[in-house]
Structure formats: structure tokens, C-alpha cells
Specification:
Low-confidence stretches: 118-135
Keywords: Coiled coil
Distance between the termini: 78 Å
Oligomer: single chain
Number of strands: 0
Helix content: over 70%
Length: 191
């Protein structure tokens, strides 16, 4: 975290106040020492009272400086909190964008591989909704469209349809490799 910087004006005012307070206390101690030597001197008593009033006045100024310092600190904290929130939002937006891009890439690759492997499947036509041009007309009401129809507008399928397509593909693979007349790769069958 970055450090809070006090404004130059406030810093100068605080240093001046501290020096004034130090001098007023020193003056008060000198007056008290003189008053101990002659306790009945009225001029010294007035000087002590005057030094005490000066210390009180400087203390009140110090209280005002402390309030200004608190206000600056609150403004700094508010700025810091705003920046943390902004950074958090930016980080979440960045993560979400990356996740969406990854999902789109995966969806595209899955769609391509699924369409490439299942286009030859006769059951694909049975599972997907009819793709005739009149079927893709825009429905008037959203509740008129079923979920599978909605998904096919965007070239998508439900999880169940996808699993069923994958199962049929795996079944075709098993049947084709189990067939002794099927040549797999460059291997020759011994007859």
C-alpha cells in the first residue's frame, strides 16, 4: 500500500505549532523556576498565567490542525477504498473476459469437432430441430420457443443431446473397430 502524504501547508503548520508549543512550555518552566525563588512576585505570577494561556491557545490550534489531519486521512482512505474497488472491478472484468474468451474458444472447438464427427450420423437429424428456413423465423412471443429450439437458433445443443451424440459416436467407433473386414490404419489383416 502507498503511504499517505500530508500536504505541504499542513506539514508546515504542524511543525510551526510544535515549535511554538515547545517554546511556550520552555518559557512557562522558566517563569515557574523564577516564581519558586520569589513566590510573592505578582509580575512573575502574571507571566506564568500568560504562559499558561499561550500554551492553551497553542493547544487549541493544535486541535484544529489535528482535525485537518483527520480530514486529509479520511479523504486518503476514501480514495484508497475507491481505487481498491476500481481495481477489483477491473480485475473481475478482466477475469470474466478471459473466461468468456476461453469458453468461446472451447465452445467453437467442441462445436467444430462435434459437427465434424456427427455430421455423418443419421441420428443427428433426429436429435436436432428441423433446420428448414421457415423454422428459423422469429417467434412472436418468447414463451412460444422451447429450449432446444432456442439453442438451435445459436447452433447450440442441450447437455443431454450432446451426451447422446457422443454415445452414438462412441458406439459407431466400437462397431467399426470390431468389424474384422475393417482395415484400421496401415495394418493388414491376416487371412
Amino acid at each position: 500500500m502507498s503511504e499517505m502524504e500530508i500536504t505541504k501547508e499542513l506539514k508546515c503548520d504542524i511543525e510551526l505549532n510544535q515549535n511554538q508549543l515547545k517554546n511556550a512550555i520552555h518559557n512557562h518552566q522558566d517563569c515557574l523556576a523564577k516564581l519558586k525563588e520569589s513566590p510573592y512576585n505578582l509580575d512573575l505570577r502574571r507571566e506564568v498565567a500568560k504562559a499558561e494561556e499561550e500554551i492553551i491557545f497553542i493547544g487549541l490550534e493544535q486541535k484544529n490542525l489535528l482535525e485537518r489531519l483527520r480530514d486529509e486521512y479520511k479523504a486518503y482512505q476514501k480514495t484508497l477504498k475507491t481505487n481498491i474497488i476500481k481495481n477489483g472491478i477491473e480485475e473481475r472484468r478482466f477475469n470474466l473476459t478471459n473466461a468468456l474468451n476461453r469458453a468461446r474458444k472451447q465452445n467453437i472447438s467442441i462445436t467444430r469437432s462435434a459437427s465434424a464427427t456427427s455430421l455423418s450420423d443419421d441420428s443427428y437429424d433426429n436429435l436436432s430441430v428441423n433446420s428448414s428456413p421457415e423454422h428459423f423465423s422469429n417467434p412472436v412471443e418468447p414463451h412460444d420457443v422451447s429450449q432446444p429450439e432456442f439453442l438451435t437458433y445459436f447452433g447450440l445443443a442441450t447437455h443431454d443431446v450432446y451426451r447422446e451424440m457422443q454415445n452414438k459416436r462412441a458406439e459407431r467407433k466400437r462397431r467399426s473397430t470390431a468389424n474384422p473386414h475393417f482395415l484400421y490404419g496401415n495394418k493388414e489383416t491376416e487371412a
